[in-house]
Amino acid sequence: MPKEVVIAGAGLAGSLLAIILSKKSYKVSVYEKRPDMRRTAMDGGRSINLALSERGIKALNQAGVMDKILPICIPMHGRVIHLANGQKTFQPYGKKGQYINSVSRGDLNKILLDEAEANGVSVFFDRPCTNIDWQKRLASFKENNQIVNHNFDLLFGADGAYANTRLQLQLHSERFDYHQFYIDFGYKELHIPPSAKGDFQMEKNALHIWPRKNYMLIALPNMDGSFTCTLFFPYKGEVSYENLKTDQQVSSFFKENFPDAFQLMPGLLHDFFINPTSPMVTVKCFPWSKDNCFALIGDAAHAMVPFFGQGMNCAFEDCRILSDLINQSDGNWETILENYQALRKPDADAIADMALENFIEMRDKVSDEKFLLQKKIEIAFAQKYPEKWIPAYGLVTFQPYIRYSEALRRSKVQQRIMDQIMKIPEIDAKWNSQEVFDSILQSLQKTDN
User: Fold this and answer.
1) What are 61-108's pLDDT values in tens digits?
2) What's the CA gap between 382 and 225, in Å, rounded?
3) Structural domain that includes position 136
4) 296 with 438, same domain?
C-alpha cells in the first residue's frame, strides 16, 4: 500500500478525500494555495451558498462526518418563484419529504478541515503547487518565495477549476484533451439581512428565484436569518453589468425588476459595487490520471456552472466512488485509477451538460405556463406510476444510486415523450386524465422495446 499521499488543494473535495484516505490508514499531507480560512477572513462576495443533496450526503455519511454537517444545514423543500407581476408561486423539488440543503461553503469547509486534522492529516497553507516531477514522484510547492518539495506515492489534484496540477498534467502528457468555455454571464453576491428581530424576511425553507428571461436573481437562507443572494447577469449588452454603472442606475433597475427583493436589501449599492463580478466556467478534460500515482478530483477534473447545484455533490461523489474502488481493489492503484476515471468521466460530462441546460430552465422556463403545465403532468404521472417515471431533477438530486450519465439518458427520453404529449389537442384541459397517462405509458413501452 502506498505510504505517502499528497493532496494539492484543501477545498471541499481535497478535505473530504483527506479524511477518507486517513481513515484507511494512509499518511496524508494537504497543501493549499490560500491562507487558512479558519484564521483569516474569506474573500468578500465569493461565498455562494451551496445546495447539499443526496449524492453529497451519501459521501459525507460514508466518511462518517455528516453528523457534524447537519447542524449547519437548512432544508429547502422547493423553489419560491418571484414573478415579474409581483406574484409568488411554490414549486416543490420532489415528493413529500424530499429536500435539498442550503449550507455555507466556508462553514462546511472549516468542519472538513477540522475533521481531517483530527484524523492525523497534515495541512499546509499558503503553498501553491508549482511543479510535479513524475519520474521522481516529487511535488513542489511555493512557500515564502522558496520551493518546498514533497515526495509522494500518490498525488491528487484537488486544486479547483484553475488547477495548477491539471496544468502540469497537460504539460507532461502527449495526448491530453482539454476544453473550457465560459458562459456570457457573471455572478455577483448580494445580501438580504435578517429582520430587526433576527427573523427570516422570506420563506426560510426554500430557494428563492426571480426569473427574468435573460437574467435572474436567486437567494438561499443562512443560519443567522439572512439570505445570500446571487445575481446571474450578462457581462455585456443593453441590460448588463457594463450598463449598470451608477447608484441611480442600479437602484432603478432593482426597483423595477426585483421590487420585493429591493425592499429587503439596504446594503444593495455597497454589495453591488464592492463585491466582484465572477465568471462561470465549464472544464472538461481527459485523462484524469497518470503513471498509476496521480489523479484529478472535483473541480480540477470537471468544473461546471452552478445551475443544477451539483458541483460540490459531484466532487463528493468522486471521493465516495474512489473510496469504494480502494475497498474493491485492495490497494491496487493501477486498477483503482483506471476504473475511477472510466466511471467518473462520462458522469462528470453528463452533469456539466445538464447544469448548462438547467440555467435556461431556471432563468426562462420556471415562469412559463407551458413549462409549468408539463411539470404538472410529469408530477401527476410520477405519483401514479412511480416505478415508471422519475423527473429529471429527481434523478439527479434524490437518486444517488443512479449515475449522472444514466440520469441524462433518461431525461432525454422523457423530454422526447413530453414534447409529443404537449402537442395533444386541449392538453391544458385534459392534462390529468387517464388518456394522457396512457399515451405516456405507450411511449415508454416503445422506448423499452
Assistant:
1) 999 999 999 999 999 999 999 998 999 999 898 888 999 999 999 999
2) 35
3) 4-41+105-179+284-358
4) no
- State the residue for C-alpha cell 450526503: 57
- Would you say 16 and 316 are in contact if contact means Cβ atoms under 8 Å apart? yes
Q: Is residue 160 part of a domain?
A: yes
Q: How far apart are CA 95 and CA 65, in angstroms?
A: 26
- 117 pLDDT above the threshold of 90: yes
Q: Which grid cell sits at 75?
A: 432544508
Domain boundary among 323, 340, 358: 358
Given this model, what pLDDT does residue 326 score? Answer: 96
The pLDDT value recorded for residue 44 is 57
pLDDT tops 80 at residue 449? no
Q: Are 79 and 208 in contact (CB under 8 A)?
A: yes
Those residues whose C-beta lies under 8 Å from the C-beta of residue 310, and which sit 6 or more positions away, are 53, 55, 304, 351, 354, 355, 396, 397, 404
Enumerate residues 6+ apart whose C-beta is below 8 A from 12.
Answer: 105, 108, 109, 112, 298, 312, 315, 316
- The domain tally of the chain equals 2
**φ, ψ of residue 11 in degrees (nearest 5):** -75, -155
Query: How many CB atoms neighbour CB 49 within 10 A?
Result: 27
Write the DSSP string, 307-363: TTS-HHHHHHHHHHHHHHHHHHHTT-HHHHHHHHHHHHHHHHHHHHHHHHHHHHIII
Per-residue cell: 45 = 462576495
Q: How far is CA 216 from the centre of its chain?
A: 18
